[in-house]
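Side project, low priority. Logging it here so it doesn't get lost.
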Amino acid sequence: MKGLFSCLKPYKKESVLAPLFKMLEAAFDLLVPLIMADMINIGIAGQDTPYLLKRCALLVALALVGFGCSVIAQYYAARAAVGCASGLRRRLFAHIQSLGFTELDALGTSTLVTRMTSDINQVQSGVKLFLRLFLRSPFVVFGAVMMAFLVDRKMALIILAALPALAVVVFGILLWTTPLYKSVQRKLDSVLGIARENLSGVRVVRAFNREEAEIQRFESANAVLSGMQRKVGRISALMNPLTYLIVNLAIIAIIKSGAVAVDTGRLLPGDLIALISYMSQILIELVKLANLIIQVSKAAACAGRVQGILDTQASMQFPDVLPEKTFPEQEAVCFDKVSLRYAGAGAESLTDISFCALRGQTIGVIGGTGSGKSSLVHLIPRFYDASCGTVRILGRPVCEWPKQVLREKIGVVLQHAQLFSGTIRSNLCWGCAEATDEQLWAALETAQAGDFVREKPGGLDAPVEQGGRNFSGGQRQRLTIARALVTRPQILILDDSASALDFATDAALRRALAALTGSMTVFLVSQRASSLKHADQILVLEDGRLAGCGKHEQLLESCAVYREIYESQFQKEGVVHA
């Protein structure tokens, strides 16, 4: 909750004015029964029409002033709630961006999206309702009791006696249903999870003809949710009849005792009507207070879930300044007995990896599925920290590099080609906002993307839909490669990022990368042995260990794992093509 309060600090004025104007509105509401009593006792009883008109005008004035107070209170409450939610969302998003891959893997994308959207929306609704009613409802309840004592003490005792019974019913049902509402929220999360999974994987569902099975799975989860909601609804439905029963019994008691008091002249008819009105006000406000507590409980639970993300600390710390020291000029990337174990994993993903890549070299990384290829290259830009051993980048231990400086020197193209909604230009300029058109076209030509970009209406300013769904898989991969090249990195990592390219385009891409001037070191992760044949070094991984390291010809002779991969791809009718 501390995160919520910190986001409310800029809205102190709104947080104070909203409940104050609501209390002012409530004060006018408490005056209405007294005015009504005067109209009955004096105006109607005495047939005094001018007096009635004056009292009617006063009621209209009170209504207008109360309406104005209510509008002002609503405005300030909404301003504080929306501002608080906006600040909390910004803070949460910034915190998520500061987390490492380890924390993001543990939390999960769906969890973070839920916290950013529905949970914060629930917090916003709770804050708004709290500011409007947390003082108004108790104020009206106790104010109505006090006003009843001003009208008639003996009759007010009936209201005072009914108040505990009403509180027991209202808050008893509240305590009963609060844990059930939490269960409903968990069941709702389950239904939303199934719906999200099916919508994101609708093509797979249809490809395997699993529509009926998925419909049944959704209906099963939805039936559980509906049953839980009906159960809570039946319990909550008891509130209205029970409270109205108590209130009507109290009103009957007031009328019975009041009739005697009116007959004896101790009580005027208008006063009796005022007491009944105060009884009704108490009922309405207690029901409002119960609903407020339910909503605030939900908001508090959601705020706790958001705070849980905010309390998650990044396990990886980066220095602010690059330390002054000498380092080898030719060394680009060096692994010294490096091992990696993911958080919560039972075994190491990488074990005792050692190699050294010089500037300007092309390093191939190959191995079977799950051999640790992506894990290895993810250590270079420090997406993860090695469990043991040392990773050196440009001669320095990777932990000594400030994040911004490190990421500027390393261009990464991940396995999943991710583009963002906007234009081709806006996507290419992610790493270098001031890049010129010449630089963008040069990067596109190197990535073999120039031809299809020119064919697009608008060229560099052609639209890109969310996720780049208006491009093919190969086009998305080439655009992401171009995006990495625009930054002119000293180290370029292509993590199986040419898997959707045909062999001719793949070969042209490799030739273009080799023709680049400068000392850029390129890491090519690929399942194709042909893509790595001309690399200066090829790292062969098997079960997280380095099974071989060397050139293509050397590995064919000395590394059984590499030879098996190569022959499985190129051996045809007993002939191996070198």
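Brief comment: The two ends are 65 Å apart (CA to CA).
Revisit when time allows.
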